[in-house]
Specification:
The complex is a heterodimer of chains A (445) and B (221).
Chain A: H1 2-61, E1 72-74, E2 77-83, E3 90-99, E4 102-112, E5 122-124, E6 136-137, E7 141-143, E8 146-148, E9 151-155, E10 159-160, E11 164-166, E12 169-172, E13 182-183, E14 187-188, E15 199-200, H2 204-213, E16 219-221, E17 224-229, E18 234-240, E19 254-257, H3 258-261, E20 266-270, E21 274-280, E22 283-289, E23 299-307, E24 312-314, E25 320-322, E26 329-334, E27 338-340, H4 348-353, E28 358-366, E29 371-373, E30 384-396, E31 403-406, E32 409-420, E33 434-435, E34 438-444
Parallel strand pairs in A: 5-8, 5-30, 6-9, 7-10, 7-32, 8-11, 9-12, 10-13, 11-14, 16-20, 17-21, 20-22, 21-23, 22-26, 23-27, 26-28, 27-29, 28-30, 30-32
Antiparallel strand pairs in A: 1-2, 2-3, 3-4, 4-34, 15-33, 17-18, 18-19, 24-25, 31-32
Chain B: H1 3-58, H2 73-76, E1 78-82, E2 85-90, E3 105-111, E4 126-132, E5 135-155, E6 161-165, E7 183-191, E8 206-214
Antiparallel strand pairs in B: 1-2, 2-3, 3-4, 4-5, 5-6, 5-7, 7-8
The chains are: A alpha/beta (445), B alpha+beta (221).
């Protein structure tokens, strides 16, 4: 009897311990699985991110790159990268990392080529010595990034709220005492932003031809063109095929809606000059192409050129931010110069001299020249004219002169008040000049 | 009945009683250990679930399928940043990393006070709130500690970039004004909401997780 009871007791306890041990073992297994699952997902995500970085490195260096990363072994897992074909400005890159059955994905949206030409409030990418002796002066203010591949010349106390970079450095040209430029966003010297090598001009003529085929009036050759943008979404244009800016000699005005006049978003003029002003309601890029030398290929601002809705509004903290209500966008491209008119005949005197200040809402691009004031220093442009209020960006082959001054006092011309329209960095105006360069505009992981 | 039989009965009773006491004690220990082990696993599962959700959301700070809606995520994505609360802009995605709808959403994480969870025996646990566009609710996963530290890029004397903690961070950020935040350190501690028996004898189990540098790529593109 005693032996049987003992046997039952031993078997009973053994059974209890086996069951409990099994349960506790399961608990330990669940605990380990919990951590292993997290570990596997983490490693898989790291592989996916690594694949994305490898691919980005390739596609940023070579915009024609086609992915050759497929099931590539990496850190005991595998990575596969796919990218949508070259063509549209947007390409989607997807990287999938797998590790021990876990799979993680990274999805990146890339945009072609706006990094150089639409990321700066003011950008002088050329090393042209034409930029020398054209300093930034007291009263000049730039909200946004600034870069020049030459020296940045200062004379007085200009203010730069964004990051400032130069290739050659900073040069104080003041003759009345040391300058004190304010670099509120920091300053870096020795930064080279390459010019031209990666730049590509769209086929403006072909784009304009496409617009003409759709019934547009968007291609002009060997004639000056007068464009006045109206705030109801229309454009009034006139032409004159001889030299001069006498507005009275231009042809009778014709008014069309912007979408009808430029169905492809481009207004293109070759072999003449463009004279523009008004209030834009819509989106357009205008191009004045001409030979070097300044006889044509210029854009002359005969008055304010603004959007119907203010593109930048105060952020309440001394800075600016994009106005969500604004969907107007303009790109202005000139082979040579962008000129602020001051002559009587063009109407520049009335608009830009007698009525001080000029307001410009656009991305400006003077390929070989810069922004200048017509007949600066001679009447009527021989007095202080207020400020150039530019909301957009300026890219120029070189600095030009917009002011004459004595000490810290302007004797003729304008101060510059530049606010970068940060919408340009993600959505530049249509047909704006691209570089074949992709930058990340959205990262999802 | 002889004296020997009586002695056998008394002896058997004593031995049987001892065996019963051992059995009861064993049963109690098994129950306690089972409770503790299961509690720890639950605790760890809660921790992993919490951090997976946190990582999933925080890695999308500043993401928007329509970049025009948020042109400067480096500047504008984080609206409010405090040690135990953060509000940021993102674009809620679908399953399997399906892209968002291109509309900005406001996400808020915050830790509630201990007074909200007086119904649990653990006096330290709190609700962790996850709110999207002002809608959401707290979950009780036993979180007792949730702290975020914010870091910015900083240049070293050698010219390389490192991270430096932002100690004078304003909590509320003005739209268009750079926060400078490029990375975060997130600490989370979770505890069991209840323990077996007296907490003095059997303290609440806890687990701690620290994400040393979590950075959304949209904050430093």
């Amino acid at each position: 009897m005693t032996g049987k009871a003992t046997l039952i007791m031993v078997i009973g306890f053994s059974f209890i311990f086996i069951v409990v041990g099994y349960l506790w073992g399961n608990v330990a297994t669940r605990s380990a699985e919990n951590h292993i699952s997290y570990y596997k997902n983490t490693i898989a995500r790291n592989i996916a991110v690594s694949g994305a970085n490898l691919a980005l490195n390739q596609v940023i260096r070579d915009s024609n790159w086609v992915s050759d990363i497929s099931d590539r072994p990496f850190e005991n897992g595998e990575m596969t990268v796919t990218i949508t074909p070259l063509g549209p400005p947007i390409r989607i890159l997807e990287s999938v990392g797998t590790f021990m059955g876990a799979e993680q994905k990274v999805r990146i949206k890339l945009q072609r080529g706006t990094r150089i030409f639409a990321e700066y409030a003011w950008f002088i990418p050329s090393v042209s010595t034409g930029s020398l002796n054209r300093p930034w002066i007291t009263g000049d203010t730039v909200f946004g990034a600034f870069h020049t591949n030459q020296f940045l010349l200062v004379d007085g106390n200009p203010v730069f709220t964004g990051h400032v970079s130069t290739l050659k450095g900073l040069k104080d040209v003041s003759k009345t005492g040391p300058s004190n430029p304010q670099f509120l966003g920091g300053y870096e010297g020795g930064i080279d932003v390459s010019w031209n090598s990666e730049m590509s001009f769209p086929e403006y003529a072909a784009d304009a031809d496409a617009g003409v085929a759709l019934g547009g009036t968007c291609k002009f050759q060997n004639t000056n063109v007068w464009l006045t943008f109206n705030d109801n979404g229309t454009v009034t244009y006139r032409t004159y095929n001889k030299t001069g800016d006498d507005s009275s000699k231009f042809s009778a005005p014709v008014t069309r809606s912007l979408s009808e006049m430029a169905p492809t978003g481009v207004i293109y003029a070759k072999g003449g000059n463009l004279f523009i002003s008004g209030t834009l309601d819509g989106s357009v890029t205008i191009i004045s192409e001409g030979s070097s030398g300044g006889g044509n290929g210029n854009v002359t601002l005969v008055g304010d050129l603004v959007y119907k809705v203010d593109p930048m509004i105060s952020n309440g903290n001394g800075g600016y931010m994009p106005n969500p209500a604004c969907d107007d966008l303009m790109g202005v491209i000139a082979t040579n110069n962008i000129i602020i008119a001051t002559s009587q005949l063009s109407g520049g005197k009335a608009n830009n001299v007698d009525n001080p200040d000029i307001h410009i809402d656009a991305g400006l691009f003077a390929v070989k020249g810069g922004m200048q004031v017509q007949d600066l220093g001679t009447a009527p442009a021989n007095k202080p004219l207020g400020s150039i209020y530019l909301q957009g960006s300026m890219t120029a082959g070189k600095e030009e002169i917009v002011a004459q001054f004595n000490g810290t006092t302007i004797t003729a011309g304008y101060n510059r008040h530049v606010i970068f329209d940060s919408r340009f960095s993600v959505a530049p105006p249509s047909w704006y000049t691209y570089t074949y360069y992709y930058s990340v505009i959205s990262w999802l992981e | 009945m002889g004296a020997a039989v009586i002695l056998d009965v008394i002896g058997s009773t004593i031995i049987g009683g001892l065996l019963l006491l051992i059995l009861f004690r064993t049963n109690d220990n098994i129950t306690m250990n089972t409770y503790n082990f299961s509690g720890e696993v639950t605790l760890q599962e809660n921790l992993v679930a919490t951090i997976e959700v946190l990582e999933f959301d925080f890695r999308k700070i500043g993401y928007c399928e329509n970049p025009l809606a948020l042109p400067d995520p480096e500047t504008d994505a984080i609206l409010y940043a405090d040690t135990s609360e953060i509000i940021f802009l993102t674009d809620i995605t679908g399953p399997d990393l399906a892209p968002g709808d291109g509309t900005l959403d406001t996400m808020r994480y915050r830790l509630g006070p201990t007074s909200e969870l007086t119904g649990t025996p653990n006096p330290n646990d709190r609700l962790l709130y996850r709110e999207v566009n002002g809608v959401g609710q707290g979950v009780n996963l036993g979180v007792t500690y949730f702290k975020i530290r914010y870091f910015r890029d900083s240049l070293t004397s050698s010219g390389s970039t490192t991270l430096a903690e932002i100690l004078d961070l304003p909590k509320t950020h003005t739209f268009g004004t750079p926060t400078g935040i490029t990375a975060m350190q997130i600490d989370i501690k979770v505890e069991n909401t209840a323990t077996y028996g007296n907490p003095d004898d059997n303290p609440y189990r806890h687990a701690f997780w620290r994400q040393i540098r979590l950075s959304s790529r949209n904050l430093r593109r």
